[in-house]
User: Fold these one by one.
Assistant:
Number 1:
Amino acid sequence: MVPGLALVAGGLLAGCRGLPVAGEKAARQEVAEVGRQLPEQLPELATNATLADCVRFAVRNHPQVRAAYADWAASVENITVARSLPDPKLTFELYAADAVSSLMPGLSADLPGPGKLAARGAAASAESRARYFQFESAALQTALAVEKSYYPLRFLDARLAVNRQMQALLGSLETLARAQNEVGRATLQDVLRAQIEQDKLRTETADLEDSRQVLLADFKAALGLTAEQADPPVPVLAPFTEGGPGDEALFALALKQNPRLKELAAEIRVAEASLRMARKERTPDFSAGLEVDAKAAPAVWNPQFGMTLPVWRDKLAAEIAAARAGERAARARLTAEQVGLAADFAEQAYLIREAGRELTLLRDRLLPRARQALEISRAAYRSGQADFLNVIDAERSLLDFQTDEIAAQTQRAVARAELTLLIVGTPPPGVPLPTNEKTGPRH
């Protein structure tokens, strides 16, 4: 190979770098920042772990989040692929009859038309933004799954505690019925009724205890733990914090930072970039090369030049029309998601308010009155002024109200988690998201 071509080939083999497009460097920094927060091995949850600790653990550990992160990282790498020039080609040609008469090594390169590489890079960059918001959605969905599996488990424990208290109460009622029977103020039927109620409550408690294993398995799966790993600790229930922004302010925040809306907005930018790419297809691509006849003296240099001819107008028109249709579809999907978001927001906000009213009614009025009614009926039965069925009815009413209180607590906690995480899109503290994404999206 002649010295000039050898020098060029050596430079190519040593490696070249293209020019990054806007946002490529920042995207790589974000991927690296999040990657440092996703270690391969996480320490086990401490026995005194809080719910917030469990959420942070799940977001770092769950395979769904790791898969979304890998997809995002791959899309960032694809920016470099999309905006890079095609690889140059080394060529070799010779003419030989009885002897080699001509030996021509060469070098050629394809050169996309003006603006094509930039358009491809912009489309890949927009696609990486959409993949990022999918990763953010996966993180928030994982956090929500932890809370949605935690609250039923924690409130099941509260229900079991209530049942055990009622078991003790029924035991005391049976003792009271026996005492009344011994002095002739009641029949043995009252003792049997008390025993029947206890048997029913024991069976219900056994069913609840059995169902705890199912709920614990759901909680374990939400944390991304496999069946072979140890069962996680169940955190102590934190007190419910009232207050916060009103519905109008929260909905405005949801429209601003909901990750699904941001993903669809990014898909619009992908569609816009695809439209620019389609329009660029009307521009010819070029190729250039150089060969040298190393056998000639002096050496003969043969420059080469080529150009594509974009003559298939129907094909070009179809590409542009398809890109325009894709853009319209992306905008329609964003509008549809905004409509659905408003409905979902209204539903979850209503469930929170409904549960709050139910808890106020139960705690301020119904539960105190039910306890008072039970004490009155017990005293009346003891003095022979009331039937034992009145005592049982009062006991059932108290149990029903206590169960309703637990159900309302569960509804309120789960609805608030869904509203905060999935609809408003507020990330829990400490989850692995890029720093600038916590304050606003990068464009």
Number 2:
Amino acid sequence: MSEEKLGFVGKQVKDIYGTYIGRVVGIITEIDGEVETVSVDCGANGLKQLPFEQLVIQGEFVFFIPKWRLEAQKLLRQKSLTLKRIKALQDIVAENDSMKEDAELVYLKYDKKLQDLQETEKAVDAKLQSRIAELDAETRNIKGVLFDAKLQFRSNEMKEETYQQVKIYTDEMLEHIANEKTEIANVRTKLANQTLENLTGASAAVAVPEAATGAPVSAESSAEASSAPAASAPATDGPVENIPVISAQHAENSEEPVHSETSWLNQVIQKQ
């Protein structure tokens, strides 16, 4: 077993939004030695077995990535590639009608793939809606704790410093929930906007400089032009223990999927 896998033991576990989960006390392996789950002491919630593919070590912490996020990012990539290939097939036929018969055979393959992905998208969206409902319930519970603490403070049953501590802790929990809900909303929007019509419109927009000036625009120039706004944009992800964590403010102002796919997250997603 690699030192990396053994390195899980003893580390604290948080989710990617900063919420503390517990501490790793052991690992469960398959007969071939591959790690199946990681055992986490969650205090009063007991010992939980977290799937190894949803965990990644960063520094002194182990970060837990929600299953919905892995599924959604995988779907976004697959759907994007499928749409691009269908668009490429359409362009090939438009440029050379003699290739229509050959292209149709390939088109059927990708059209079937797109239909399958749309069914997967419905299942993923249902999970996202379910997760939002869970987060809404957690929000109500946390606000109830804060309100009760305020009531105790106003009735002189609780000292002000104690109340302020409760407020700090509950505000932090509410911020984590808001961050996750913002990311879910952003992912759902991104999935909904992934259509062949939008892809065709984006391609037409890239061709505008050539039509307006009469001068050819190179692929490199087009790529630079399309990426320029992103390059001038401010940094979007704030660190939580050196891990990029979603910012609600960034998600509201960005058209890109939140939680840009950094190398450590790709490492986890590629395990699927």
